[in-house]
């Protein structure tokens, strides 16, 4: 039977686009109100805030996240190559802006180790190109000497002209200038992606690519912190192969390790890991996670201050952290041009991590988010703070999980966290002067446990899907051994190549009938299948297009044990020989047989079927090459008196075949060539002579 297709009304695309444009460009009070409400979701949910139910959970989670944020912000400043005060600014402004613009109730947006690393690598590269010394203690030592001598040596030492900008503010000022320019451009990219609805870009970052990227970056972060752990002074490596070069420099200078830093690092790591393990084991019994990082920082600061570890043992410390806010400053345009390319992967990674965590929380707690608005929120979390000496932000998995586990209900908890950071900014920051950098490195390294544990999951991952495991491995090692930006690009390209290869060489099979049913399956995968006499049923599990055309034909010829082109050529050759013998008057054929027996030789013994059924249920689409391929096998098999029947075609495939004249011009033979199930095609083939 032939089902009748519906007639679809053709839409005038030009008129539809003009109508949509007129609607979007119209301006009414209601539309303006809806735009403002959508752009600032806080105006929707805050008036409906259920204070009695939500307030205590928000306050508790906000305080806990704020307590975690302070030590992490100070620690992650090492990754960004900036002073701790800028990390605190970043954490403060990101929480406030996401409170106003975000649609997720539970995501914690702020400083994130991976983003800090990406910022730090750009900052280090630009500082090196500008002629600054990347040694962490160089600028601080120079600053101390300038203060003692009451001179301006720190300024004049770094008086250089870069990209048309006269840089007279020293290494620290130039570093934060690069970071804010990078952050501003990344935020602009995110806002533009939101305006042009380019959120689909995140679809090309599969879970395997993201996990591999995070794991490779974690190895880079770990490597960058080792020098602080053991207290050696080595130059920061730049460019490709940074991880290998850094480890070579570490082993070359291992003899210069600071014993005080080594002992402090060992104690801190032992305490932090033990506390984390106990927290994971008894997390169901604890109402909120233990503030281990804060305790370690407070104790380590007191020990360093009263033990005078910097003066006596030359242990590197954080140094002076100013209080209050630095006056806002517009990011320099010339610096934006220098970092425009670097800002693109930063913008994509920042958005992808935020949207994936937002969707995870929304699914878990049964509410919806607006992906496009999330892109705007993250974009403005970068644009606005860049005027206030802050750098790029993103949602952070660890803090988001802590936030949800401590009773968070809304983004009011983000405001509470921002108030905790503000308290440190205004009053408590100078107290961290004596904090050793090795303690901050320990906090960073212990926070990488989750990402580094991914190596332990490789066997299970390999068992589930070998291709995804290969993508994860390639992305991980490309991110670690080359660079994190190149690693991300390699991961995306490799994962797409894997998809292409899988469609180029998909599974193919001959099907057999499940006895006493109308269902058919792969006879190599299942036992006790019944082979339909004189009928071959071929399945191709991929779209049929130009890249896999040859594989389709080779698989078909191999499984049916018949190449119609070779068979046709063999028959023509045989017919020529017979004609030559007949002209000579020899009634015996080339094989020594009589003329009557010749016709038997023209039908090869290996052709044991008269109908070929192509199961198209897995063919999602056909291109022009795919249609021509099916027309080719239709003609070739017809020359051998074998009919080709198509079964289970979707409407898209049927339309492609119709437009390609597969069924002829009058479509009269369509019902004898196209069937809506394999069983109908088999029954039709059996009825044929």
Per-chain topology:
Blueprint: H1 13-25, H2 29-39, H3 42-45, H4 51-80, H5 84-101, E1 109-110, H6 113-129, H7 136-149, H8 153-156, E2 160-162, E3 165-167, H9 170-195, H10 207-230, H11 242-252, H12 259-281, H13 292-307, H14 309-313, H15 333-364, H16 371-386, E4 394-395, H17 397-405, H18 412-428, H19 437-447, H20 449-452, H21 458-464, H22 466-481, H23 484-504, E5 508-514, E6 520-522, E7 529-530, E8 534-540, H24 549-560, H25 564-583, H26 595-602, E9 609-615, H27 624-639, E10 643-647, H28 651-659, E11 674-675, H29 678-687
Parallel strand pairs: 8-9, 9-10, 10-11
Antiparallel strand pairs: 1-4, 2-3, 5-6, 5-7, 5-8
Helix pairs in contact: 4-5, 4-6, 4-17, 4-18, 4-19, 5-16, 5-18, 6-9, 6-15, 9-15, 9-16, 10-11, 10-19, 10-22, 10-23, 12-13, 12-19, 15-16, 21-22, 22-23
Mean pLDDT: 85
Low-confidence stretches: 138-167, 598-605
Percent of residues in helices comes to: 55-70%
Question: Looking at the structure, what is the overall shape?
Answer: elongated
- Strand-pairing-aware structural class: alpha/beta
Instruction: State the major sheet.
Output: 7 strands, mixed
Binned strand content: 5-15%
Overall number of domains: 2
Write down how many β-strands occur, each being a DSSP E stretch of 2 or more residues. Answer: 11
Describe the structure.
- It contains 29 helices and eleven strands.
- It is an alpha/beta fold.
- The protein has two domains: 411 residues, no CATH class; 144 residues, STAS domain (Transcription Regulator spoIIAA), CATH 3.30.750.
- The strands form three sheets. Strands 5, 6, 7, 8, 9, 10 and 11 form a seven-stranded mixed sheet that branches. It has a two-stranded antiparallel ribbon with strand order 1-4. It has a two-stranded antiparallel sheet with strand order 2-3.
- Helix 27 links the parallel strand 9 and strand 10.
- Helix 9 packs across helix 15.
- About 6% of the residues have low confidence.
- It is a multi-pass membrane protein.
